[in-house]
Amino acid sequence: MAYVSMGEAHRRITDFLGRFSDSIASQDGAALRSLLAVSSNSSLLLSLADALNIFQDWARLVKQADRNSQQLGEILVPHLRCIQSFRIGRFVEAYVAFEKSANAFLQEFRNWETAWAVEAVYMVAHEIRVLAELADKELSSMGKNPEKLQGAGSFLMKVFGSLAGKGPKRVGALYVTCQLFKVYFKLGTVHLCRSVIRSIETAKIFDFEEFPSSDKATYMYYTGRLEVYNENFVAADQKLTYALMHCNSRYEANLRMILKYLIPVKLSIGILPKMTLLEKYNLIEYTNVVKALKSGDLRLLRRALQEHEDQFLRTGVYLVLEKLELQVYQRLVKKIHMIQKQKDPSKAHQIKLDLIVKALKWLQVDMDVDEVECIMAILIYKNLMKGYFAHKSKVVVLSKQDPFPKLKGKPVSS
Amino acid sequence: MLSTANQGSQPMAAVDPNSMEERSRDDVSQGHAPVIAGHYSWPASAAPVTVSWNYGVNSGPLENATTSSSVHNYDPLRDSTASEGAQVTMNSLPQTSASSNLAATNGSQAYAGYAQHSSSTYAYGYGNMQYQSSYYGHPHQASYTSYQQAGTSQNSGASYQPHSSFQNTSSYATPTSYSGTYFASDHQTTAGYPTSGYFDQNNYWNDGSGGGYPLQYANYPSSGSAVAGIAPTTTYPVQSANAGSLYASNQPPPPGTTSWRGDLGLSTLPSPQARNDVASRFPHGGWDEKAFTVQNYHINQIPSDLQKASDSKLSLYENHDGSEKITCSYDPNSSLQVFSTGQVSQNPQQPLQTVSTMDACRVSKMQIPTNPRIASSLTVGMPKVDKETSTANASAKPAYISVQVPKLSNQLSSSDDADAVIKGAFPPSVRAYVERCFSRCKDDAQRTSNKLILSEIIAKAKDDGTLWTKNWDMEPLFPLPNSNSSGADQNILQSTVPSMPKFSSRRSKSRWEPVAEERLDLKDAPVNNDSTKNVSWAERMAGSQMLNTMDDGRNSMKYPLQSLLSKTPQRPLKKSRFSDTLDITENGNSSSDSDKEQELTKHYSSAITLENSPEERKRREHRSKRFEKGQEKQADVKQFKPKGAGVASIYLRRANALMLAKNSDDQCREVEDIYWDALTVKGTCQDVEKRYLRLTSAPDPATVRPEEVLERALHMVQTCQKNYLYKCDQLKSIRQDLTVQRIQNELTVKVYETHGRLALEAGDLPEFNQCQSQLKRLYADGIKGCQMEFSAYNLLCVILHSNNKRDLLSSMNSLSIEAKQDEAVKHALAVHSAVSSGNYVLFFRLYRAASSLITSLMDLHVEKMRFEAMKCISKSYRPTVPVSYIANVLGFSASAQTGVDDENGANGLEECEEWLKAHGAVLVAENNAELQVDTKASSSTLYMPEPEDAVAHGDANLAVDDFLARTS
């Protein structure tokens, strides 16, 4: 820490206080926003933090400033304390202080009629989440119960409440919703999203399209993920596609995140991505899955799933990918059918079960006749194959018309 | 205290008010008689009486409210009593170890003595807490700091440290200013007071920005999770101002403390055998002490309006408690306060001899009656504060924990002292006490009132037979009446005396009732009542709160406060109860208004006429007899002290821990710092067999089995031939014993595993889930067991019985690599893929291969799987499928491939046929050949039949016949 003289420290602090009250007096949301960005490591705040560490009696300065201007001490004292703690890496303290400050700020914000400070509220919502995550990391490293993120969630709910009504502030509701989603997904309490979603989607006073498009994309991303959990692939496809289309193409990381979910969803409704797409966004974990789907290579699919099992389980697409197995079987039978057709077109629609068992064995998938028979029955049952199975002769009899119907954007019927 | 406890345990809400009324009447009548006596001997003696009466008058209007309110509150409290009562008690109990430390650090003997005292009695716990808080609050900063340190050493230290020493000191240091401001505003509504004081309080705990007034509140919480804590805090300033000086100069606090200890300690420390006696004891101790304290309060009231307000608070406090705890706490406080304030005692000392024994006796009677009234009047004020205090509680609580001290040694010494004293007509200690009392009188009026009060006290002591046993050095000085007000009071008194009874009785109800009840019930009261006492006490407090709300004028303050309080987030239900009780304190503050008193006096005079009726007299006599009985019992109790100590200490420890827990709860922090060890019971029961009974109070070590016995019990369950119901019951009781003793080791895991398996076997999923979740925690703590087996069960449960993909994902994600190598887990994962792809062949193969327990888990999914498979088969197979194939594939035959041949296969075939028919499949038999399913026809006729064992509530497990059939 560079040496800072007492006077310099004093100057910096009063400068900050002046900026803060000026930004509120002039209703400059952007300026206020930058003053609240604790975790941004902006040079202004860093130097301020140093000054605070030097000039220990800064609370007095706040009080003085308070006397001259509006009553901002409730916000500023904990805020400065937060900046100070953040600088020295005490994130739990920083979080606690920030929450206090944010509560006071929210109190003020409720009284402001116009939405000029919405941007600042965004920053508060963002900061409290980031700080809570840091604080939780610190807590769990100390062996304590990480609970700050949960606290941040309930604070964000308060913020949401202050925004979600009628009036100009409503425009900010979606941003806070997205922060809430982040918190809930991280905490694994996604069921809490439902109430927020409901209030966003049922409110008629405000058209969804009027929200900022970045918020809309984020919102669609998270709701799409929720649909993936529910295995509601059509809706998931729609939402994630919306998110992808509205996501700023400069943010490749965001695009990648969306694709991570969109690709499995698309796969499960029978739409395969180009390999170039996977390469471009570094989604190689899906390459083998796609290859397996194309070639009907069951072994490859299983291997791919096993290889990336942890990752798929973490992102929650494992179960979706697992279900692709039936499509791989379909592809396999289709291939056999095609080969058989080349050999003997007249008997092409009758496939002996033994043949399929042999093919699977060749793929090192060890399944006996009964099991394969069962798979064939399921394929027919789920409409991945048209035809019937003759038990007596152990033959799959395929329909002569379109024996392997494509999914065409519809999920496998269950 | 005991009385409260007994009542709390008794079911009747309505009873309380009634009994209370009787009590009050009795009291009144008794009080009356002594007054007369007083007149004979000393003309001046009227003064004290007046005081008490005034109080009664004030509280008169409140009567109705109190009764009703108490009734209301009762029910909810009762319910909670069982579970929470224990907790409350526990809170009150300080940690012994910590307390001892504190005492040492403080260095002031008085303090130490008190601490000890408190620790011995449950009730005392409250007292101690109060005491401590008050003590610390006092100017002695040094002592305060030491206190803090003690707190830190304890687990909970962190939470209370925040309320800094500064705050306390400031408030106490300027007691006069405080009282002045507070009381100066005749009505509580005065803007200045409420805004600064109350609002600050809320913030105070968080910010540490409290004014002098708020500090007091802060003290409350510390003293008391127990309600008792509240009242004392408020009173402090007053006492110190008036009576304080005397105490300081004359009384050595330590000796006094010891005497208290003796009484209290005896009552509290019962050994299992002695419990009954002890229970009876409790009330007694409470009575004696109360009388004294009450008088003190009265006196206080007299002096000035300000004082009155304060007094009212105090008396309220007492009433509610109706228990020794309060008094004890008070005494120490007053003495302490004296020190701090350092007021000059002007009064000349009067010799003891002036008091004749006869007079004394009468006087003593008087005192008792007065107490109730005072108490009732006090109750009026308090509602506002409560919530705030509750908030404060969390942080403050730790304080008392630290304070608690071991009691036994002191108690014994006190009894010894008492024996020694017996030589003279009046023990020297009594003389010293009287001297002390008189030394603080400033003028004649005070002196006369002082005399009267003293004579009452002594007479009463004589009456009770405690004259010689009581440690007079420890006896708290009663507050001095103000000379001006006392004069006025006297006039009122004289006019009112004849008619007194009614109002006073009403007021007194809340307080006295419990006491009377106690006496009667004490013998039977089980030890467990201790825990309940506190609760009932809290209830009463709540009742008083109601009263407060009724007075609109006074309480205008309270509403804003309450709303504020209600906003405070995250308070659990239990706490809300506390907050109610705390409210009383608030009311007490507000109630002191002069307007009200006048109103009350009017009421009072009208009611007075009732007093002298023969009925009243009878009641009085009856009552005095009761007192005698109580005393005898006390004596008995003393003998049992030593034995009881052990038990008591257990309770104490537990109480402390609970209190801590509560504190931390309140604050939503430091939960992990709770000193759970203190809650742990060490069982002594040697029975291998024990029925499960849900605990409704703190566990009794005598009915809890230690680990070795539990091990045998587990073995017994594992090897016995009885049905699941019996085993489940036994296992639950084992689990309970393990839990209350906090045994978490291989045995615990074994018990849960055993129970989990048995539950699976019996298809008792809810019970299994309980075990499963416990096991998850235990495994996570690194305790060895059959973790793989149970994670397989867990997986299967998620796969088969909950349709939650996220659960499944997370439990799959949490599997370790070696878990994935485990056969059982592999099996479970295979089941998952079979289910998710609908692969019925694989599913039933796994079903057959599974161990019996997993089979029973999968059993619950078999029907669904079969039906789904049949739908699939009937759609995809043409034209027919042999039934034998279906029976084989869908797991109807026990042996896999060869099923048709052997007997099992035949059975399976039949079973399959039945099943198919039941589900609407169309069966055909061509040419005498095998039975076939006509798939095309079946595809439209398949249906899922209503399960035969379906029940209206949807859970077939609850059908008794079925359950019995499965489990026997």
UniProtKB/TrEMBL annotation, chain A:
- The residues forming a coiled coil are none
Q: Which residues form the PCI domain?
A: 217-403
Q: Which PROSITE patterns match?
A: PCI (PS50250)
What the entry lists under InterPro entries is as follows: Csn12-like (IPR045114), PCI_dom (IPR000717), WH-like_DNA-bd_sf (IPR036388)
| Pfam families the record matches | PCI
Provide the protein name: PCI domain-containing protein
Show the taxonomic lineage. Answer: Eukaryota, Viridiplantae, Streptophyta, Embryophyta, Tracheophyta
Automatic annotation (TrEMBL), chain B:
| Biased composition annotated in UniProt, kind: Basic and acidic residues | 20-29, 593-602, 627-639
Q: Name one Pfam family in it.
A: SAC3_GANP
Q: Which Gene3D superfamilies match?
A: 1.25.40.990
The domain of life for this entry's organism is Eukaryota
Coiled-coil regions listed in the entry: none
Residue ranges for the region (Disordered) are 1-30, 146-168, 563-639
Polar residues bias: start-end ranges: 1-10, 582-592, 603-612
The residues covered by the PCI domain are: 764-947
Q: Write down what this protein is called.
A: PCI domain-containing protein
What organism, scientifically named, is this protein from? Dendrobium thyrsiflorum (Pinecone-like raceme dendrobium)
